[in-house]
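2024-03-11 09:14:02 INFO worker-7 job=invfold-0412 stage=load source=structure_tokens
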């Protein structure tokens, strides 16, 4: 049915993308949406849990933590009072569509924010010498609530001192004073809290209700539903720009290639939007306006005109504004499509080995009603056909940071690498088990293969990796394990289930966990993930990532295995030999050893969870960090110069072209992270290196493992093993 999309995903791709508004939908009665959401959870969720006192306590806890995620504004005294008042029956109230308690709780939270920001301004007027031996917590999410206002005051005194010190140390500081920068930050936070409308509060609360069942059930309002649909079909109607909120402005974060904004040549990353107008209508000032509201003003129907008043990046004079008129159009999100590379790798003896690399950010699938036809399996098949024509000798499928996607697509894609057979088992809340199979009958690629994963490879990525591992079809290489999300969600558009609303999307949608999936070998990936055959040093391989770090994950369990045809699919993988060779290279590779040291430092920082408020100590840490970075940059540059391989880019637009473009060498050091300007986020912010480009040490080691696999496979065939 059109109202339902079966998918697996850890997170959506876009958090603020300009979407198509379409016609203004009818509005649902206020009680209908919460009543429908709660009934669907009770009757349709995998667990079938009832919204009684136990779930009410969960809902309240989740709602408070969603509002005050760092436990900065509320106190334990507040939590105790709210629990006594609402913690037993809040679930029963939402069943009848009553969100009055949620709004009352929000009013308490808003009052605490207003009180705290007033105190922050007084703290900003003090003089600080930054010579104390005190520390500030980096992350309070897993800490207890401050007991009372006095303890909260003490924590905030340290927090503000830490933020002022961070601004003083910030090498990218603006001309504004540190107190002014911090004040503006908290004034913006306060405005965001005060400007939330009733529907915004409803969405936060209903999402907390869904999250109380498991981490991946979610209520999506109209805007978030549109973002999800965009991420699955990889296209949108808009101006082709991604925005983020900064200093009261909606700021251009990135231009989508080929979109109206990029084609105009008049908008650049870093530009700030001052006002928005529809066609020839008057401008609406959007400074200090919630980002979602700015997006709503900018989006619209294909072919219509939106006018923007822009403050160009770097402009200090607010009168030097630029007026840009754009015609909304279809924008293809090609950056999220499957893409490939052909790597001609120079061997130690001077020969060249041709290797393939497919990068897949998401298992996308266009919902039938949109008709754009996007399909992961079809796109990967097109890339494989070209790679086969290019006579690659081995292949790496890179699923790092792939959060999941379509269940149907991962089954079809698995069939590109095996000759028929079961791919995954799914079990519903009633215990019924369905085995999903590839029925195509012939693998498209049969050569040596590696699946590259990390702790952010989740859900559908784990199904693919597990199937390749269970069939003995590929080596799994990367972090110690994948994310550990073994659940299946369906997306139910509430408007289609509520007759008085019809098919409108104003009611939003419920992403509902309805099944768990299991490997063909019988084990679940839930909590445990897929264990890598060969582990590489990785900054994401820590306790902060993974299903087990989330609230209320479902339990691990096992079911019976299903028979599979190993004879027609299994390849000799030489796991022990390859693991030993890789370990030897890692021990002698300075870049990989740097990553291993970074992981140790990050884990120590996470365990310690505090940051010094002493300027001398912090400056010494910065000098040490800078020297370490200089050494790492030198090592990366040396590795880049020593690498004589050629890399050809293969996009879906190029699969039929006779000649592929040769990728230019990039400077990997340019992608290293900057120090966070917030002491609470500093440790985690500094560690997120992300993708380091084609010369990353992780990528080179994966290619070395693949090259070894090819050698062993060739030797095995030669001796008839």
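2024-03-11 09:14:09 INFO worker-7 stage=emit residues=721
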């Amino acid at each position: 049915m059109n109202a339902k999309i079966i998918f697996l995903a850890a997170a959506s791709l876009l958090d603020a993308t300009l979407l198509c508004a379409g016609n203004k939908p009818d509005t649902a009665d206020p009680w209908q949406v919460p009543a429908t959401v709660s009934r669907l959870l009770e009757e349709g969720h995998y667990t079938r849990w009832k919204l009684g006192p136990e779930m009410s306590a969960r809902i309240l806890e989740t709602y408070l933590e969603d509002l005050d995620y760092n436990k900065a504004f509320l106190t334990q005294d507040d939590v105790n009072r709210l629990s006594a008042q609402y913690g037993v029956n809040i679930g029963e109230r939402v069943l009848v569509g009553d969100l009055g308690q949620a709004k009352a709780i929000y009013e308490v939270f808003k009052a605490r924010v207003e009180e705290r920001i007033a105190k922050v301004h007084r703290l900003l007027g003090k003089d600080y010498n930054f010579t104390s031996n005190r520390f500030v917590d980096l992350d309070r999410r897993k800490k207890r609530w401050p007991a009372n206002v006095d303890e909260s005051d003490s924590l905030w005194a340290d927090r503000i001192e830490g933020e002022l010190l961070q601004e003083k140390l910030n090498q990218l500081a603006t001309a504004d004073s540190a107190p002014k920068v911090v004040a503006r930050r908290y004034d913006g936070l306060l405005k965001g809290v005060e400007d939330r409308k009733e529907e915004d509060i409803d969405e936060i609360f209903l999402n907390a209700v869904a999250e109380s069942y498991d981490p991946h059930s979610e209520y999506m309002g109209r805007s978030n539903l549109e973002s999800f649909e965009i991420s699955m079909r990889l296209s949108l109607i808009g101006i082709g720009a991604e925005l983020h909120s900064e200093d009261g402005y909606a700021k251009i974060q990135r231009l989508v290639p080929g979109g109206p904004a990029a084609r105009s040549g008049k908008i650049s990353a870093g530009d700030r939007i001052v006002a928005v107008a529809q066609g020839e209508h008057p401008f609406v000032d959007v400074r200090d306006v919630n980002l979602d509201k700015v997006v709503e003003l900018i989006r619209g129907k294909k072919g219509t005109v939106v006018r923007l008043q822009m403050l160009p990046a770097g402009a200090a004079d607010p009168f030097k504004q630029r007026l840009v008129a754009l015609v909304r159009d279809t924008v293809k999100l090609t950056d999220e499509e499957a893409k490939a590379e052909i790597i001609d790798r120079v061997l130690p003896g001077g020969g060249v080995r041709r290797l393939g690399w497919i990068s897949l950010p998401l298992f996308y699938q266009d919902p039938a009603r949109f008709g754009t036809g996007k399909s992961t399996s079809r796109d990967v098949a097109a890339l494989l056909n070209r790679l086969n024509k290019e006579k690659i000798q081995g292949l790496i499928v890179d699923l790092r940071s792939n959060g999941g996607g379509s269940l149907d697509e991962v089954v079809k894609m698995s069939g590109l690498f095996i000759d028929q057979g079961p791919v995954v088992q799914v079990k519903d809340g009633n215990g019924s088990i369905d085995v999903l199979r590839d029925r195509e009958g012939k693998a498209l690629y049969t050569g040596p293969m590696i699946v590259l994963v990390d702790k952010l490879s989740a859900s559908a990525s784990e199904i693919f990796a597990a199937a390749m591992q269970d069939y003995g079809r590929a080596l799994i290489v990367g972090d110690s394990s994948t994310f550990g999300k073994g659940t299946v969600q369906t997306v139910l558009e509430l408007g289609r289930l509520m007759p008085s609303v019809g098919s409108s999307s104003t009611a939003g949608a419920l992403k509902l966990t309805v099944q768990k999936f299991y490997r063909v070998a019988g084990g679940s990936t839930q909590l445990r993930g897929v264990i890598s055959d060969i582990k590489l040093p990785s900054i994401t391989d820590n306790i902060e990532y993974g299903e087990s770090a989330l609230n209320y994950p479902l339990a691990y369990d096992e079911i019976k295995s299903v028979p599979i045809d190993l004879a027609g699919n299994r390849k000799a993988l030489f796991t022990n030999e390859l693991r030993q060779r890789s370990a030897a290279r890692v021990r002698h590779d300075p870049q990989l050893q740097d990553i291993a040291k970074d992981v140790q430092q990050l884990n120590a920082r996470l365990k310690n969870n505090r940051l010094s408020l002493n300027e001398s100590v912090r400056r010494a840490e910065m000098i040490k960090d800078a020297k370490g970075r200089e050494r790492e940059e030198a090592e990366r540059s040396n590795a880049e110069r020593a690498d004589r391989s050629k890399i050809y880019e293969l996009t879906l637009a190029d699969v039929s072209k006779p000649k592929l473009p040769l990728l230019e060498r990039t400077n990997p050091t340019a992608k290293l992270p900057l120090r966070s300007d917030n002491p609470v986020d500093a440790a985690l912010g500094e560690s997120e290196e992300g993708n380091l480009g084609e010369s990353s040490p992780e990528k080179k080691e994966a290619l070395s493992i693949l090259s070894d696999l090819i050698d062993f496979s060739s030797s095995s065939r030669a001796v008839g093993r």
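2024-03-11 09:14:09 INFO worker-7 stage=report msg="The chain has three domains: 50-212, 235-332, 336-486+513-718."
2024-03-11 09:14:10 INFO worker-7 job finished
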